[in-house]
Amino acid sequence: MKTIDDLSLSGKKVLIRVDFNVPLDENLEVSDDTRIKAAIPSINKVISSGGSVILMSHLGRPKDRVEEKFSLKNILNPLSMLLNKKVIFSSDCIGEKTQKLASHLKPGEVMLLENLRFHKEEKSGDREFAGKLAALADVYINDAFGTAHRAHASTTIVADFFPKEKAFGYLIQSELKSMNQVLGAQEKPFTAIMGGAKVSDKILIIENLLDKVDNLIIGGGMTYTFVKAQGGSIGSSIVEEDKLDLAVRILTIAREKNVEVFLPEDDVVADRFDNNANKSVSNAGDIPEGWMGLDIGPKAIKTFTGIIQNSKTILWNGPMGVFEMNSFQEGTKQIAKAIAEATSKGAFSLIGGGDSVAAINKYKLKDQVSYVSTGGGAMLEYMEGKILPGIKAIEN
Ligand code: AMP
C-alpha cells in the first residue's frame, strides 16, 4: 500500500482529496467536525515535510451549480482553527485564478478549493476537468475514504495524471488496515453483528461474510423477514415480503458453511411506532396482531452479549432496534457495551455504517472500540468484497 510516507513532498504542491462533506446547521456552521479532524494528520504531514497543500472536497448535493449553502467557505474557520494556521480560499476549484493562487503557494501554506460539485464534470468523472485539477499540483493524495466508492473526477480520474506521484493519505490507510484486519480475521472467533431496517441493504455484505465469520448475529428490523420466512408470527413488524426466499437461502448457506446464526429469541414489542407506545416482551415468532417488534428482548441481549464477549474479531453494522427512541434503545446500547468490553479484553472491533456509528457515539463508547469507520457506503462496498475505484486508481 503506497502511502503519503512513501513520497518525497519537500517543495512540492500536494493536491489532497479530502472528505469535508460535513453537516452544517441552520446558520451554516459545522455541527460535527469529525471528518475535518480526520484529514488533519495528512495535511500536517505535507506541511512538516516542506510541501504546500491544496485541499479539494465536495459538500452536500448542489445541483451542478454554485449554491451558497454548499460553499466550502463555511468550513474555512473550523479548518483554520484545527490546523492553527490561515487557510487561503479559492472561490472556484479550477480556472485561471485558481491556477494562479496555486502557483504562488509557498511551502507550509494551505489552500482550500471551492466545492467540486459546483461543476457537473466532477460527478461525471470528466477527464478534462480532472486534468485541470491535476495541473494545480505535483503530487496527488487521496484521503477521502467516504467517496472512495465513486469514480468521480477528483477521487479516481485525476489519479491517472500522476502515474508515480500518488498515494493514500493516513485516513484511507487506517480505514483499509482495519477493514483488512477484519476481513482476513486471524483472531477467532469472528462475530459479525448485522442490524438496521432492511435485509436488502445488507445482503451483499452478509453473503461475503458467510465465508469468513464463525458467528452471525442478526438484530434490528431485518430480523422479522427471517422470522416470517421460517413461519413465525411477526404482527405488524417491518418486513420485506419479497426477501423471504432470500432469508431462507442465507440461513441455508450459513448452515452449509458452519456459521452459527443467532436471531433474537425475544423482542420488545409496541402497539405503535412511538416512544410512548405501550410496551411488552414477546417470544420470537410469537408477536400478536397489532404489535410490532422495535428492539431485541432481554433473553436476546443475554445471548448476544455472551457471544460478543467471547469473540476476538468483531464487526458491527446496524442497530438492534429503533435506538433513536429511548424506549427501544436497550438492545443497541447493551450490544455497544459488550463490544467495548470485548475490546478491553483484547478483541479487535470495527464499527461501520451510519447508524451504528451514531449509536456508538450516543453511548460515548467511541474510544473504547478498536476502529470506527468514517465511510458509510464506501465501507459497506469494501466489506461486500467490491473493488473501490478510488482505491484501485492509487494502486494502479
Ligand atoms: P440501516 O440504515 O439499515 O442500518 O437502518 C437503521 C435504522 O433502522 C434506524 O433508523 C433504526 O431506527 C431502524 N430500525 C432498527 N430496528 C428496527 C425495527 N425493529 N423496526 C423498524 N425500524 C428499525
Write the layout of secondary structure elements.
Layout: E1 13-17, H1 34-48, E2 52-56, H2 76-83, E3 87-90, H3 96-103, E4 110-113, H4 120-124, H5 127-134, E5 139-142, E6 166-168, H6 170-183, E7 190-194, H7 199-209, E8 215-218, H8 223-229, E9 233-234, H9 244-256, E10 260-262, E11 266-270, E12 279-283, E13 286-287, E14 292-296, H10 298-309, E15 313-317, H11 330-344, E16 348-351, H12 354-362, E17 371-372, H13 376-383, H14 389-395
Parallel strand pairs: 1-2, 1-5, 2-4, 3-4, 5-6, 7-8, 7-15, 8-10, 9-13, 15-16, 16-17
Antiparallel strand pairs: 11-12, 11-14
Helix pairs in contact: 1-2, 8-9, 10-11
This protein binds adenosine monophosphate (AMP).
Adenosine monophosphate binds at residues 196-198, 201, 220-221, 238, 293-294, 318-319, 321-322, 324, 353-355.
Explain what the structure shows.
- The chain folds into 2 domains: 4-168, Phosphoglycerate kinase, N-terminal domain (Rossmann fold, 3-Layer(aba) Sandwich), CATH 3.40.50.1260; 176-383, Rossmann fold (3-Layer(aba) Sandwich).
- It contains 14 helices and 17 strands.
- The chain has helices at residues 34-48, 76-83, 96-103, 120-124, 127-134, 170-183, 199-209, 223-229, 244-256, 298-309, 330-344, 354-362, 376-383, 389-395; strands spanning 13-17, 52-56, 87-90, 110-113, 139-142, 166-168, 190-194, 215-218, 233-234, 260-262, 266-270, 279-283, 286-287, 292-296, 313-317, 348-351, 371-372.
- Strand 1 (13-17), helix 1 (34-48) and strand 2 form a beta-alpha-beta unit.
- The longest helix is centred in the N-terminal third of the chain and has 15 residues, at 34-48.
- It binds adenosine monophosphate.
- The site of adenosine monophosphate (AMP) has 17 residues, from strand 14 and helix 12.
